[in-house]
Model the fold of this input.
Amino acid sequence: ANTANSRQGCDASAVAIPDSARQSRGAVILMLDRGSCAFTMKVWNAQLAGADAVIIVDDRDEDLVTMDSGADADTGSYVSNITIPAVLARMVDGNSFDQAITNYGHVVGTLDWHDVLPHPDSRVEWELWSESNDECGYKCEQQNAFIVDFAPIAKQLEQDGYTQFTPHYITWMCAQNPDSRECKAQCINRGRYCAPDPDDDLSHGYSGADVVIDNLRALCVFDAANKTGTPWLWWDFVSQFTSACSMDSGRFAAKSCAEDVVRKVGVDLAKVNACIGDTNA
Done:
């Protein structure tokens, strides 16, 4: 039954694939609605139900966002076992899918990334979205472990000309007055670039602004290294920064710690600092 509960995909017992779909020759693409639980929970429940792929339809009229996993321990118990692809579709496209299903009963869909993936040469172009915050629980632990473990492989692929890598860090603009307590604690450049407070306490501990500054420094390390034809030095920097300048060590927001790592990996510190600029401007 196509109920609101089954379309949410948050209750594994409610996610079911019709027998007619199971008996078809093609793969089963399950369409679910965004909301009520993490994206990863929806995809995991769909996989358990037997789906071969998932389309999650946005529940609001907006530009597409990047789907992310939850940071809780429960997510960590299953997220690494997800093996099926999933995409987020705009609300307007989801409405079109619904109308087509209503009109025709069965709809054949194709998930094709060829038109959206850049391919100017023979290299594989890929991106990694991460953050310097290392106190967000399971999610941060997995991220940092991946970076350290994959660094030697990523560097070799880049050096041998098989890949072209670009790092990214998520930020947003403060919706409040730039002089507000929230903006000052979580943002730089008067609210233009922000990150959440690591411990949700604006008065104590590391701030969102600390996170943004270290994210920016990592991007500037990549920029400086990339301009000298050695983009793989970013992997050396983030791996060593994670170890030497962690929040647990008390050196996360220490500029001297980060700059020591920049020097050790062989990136021009003056160019990195020039790239960072004035974070109070």
User: Anything to note?
Assistant: The mean pLDDT is 87. The first strand starts at residue 29 and ends at 33. DSSP finds eleven helices and seven strands in the chain.
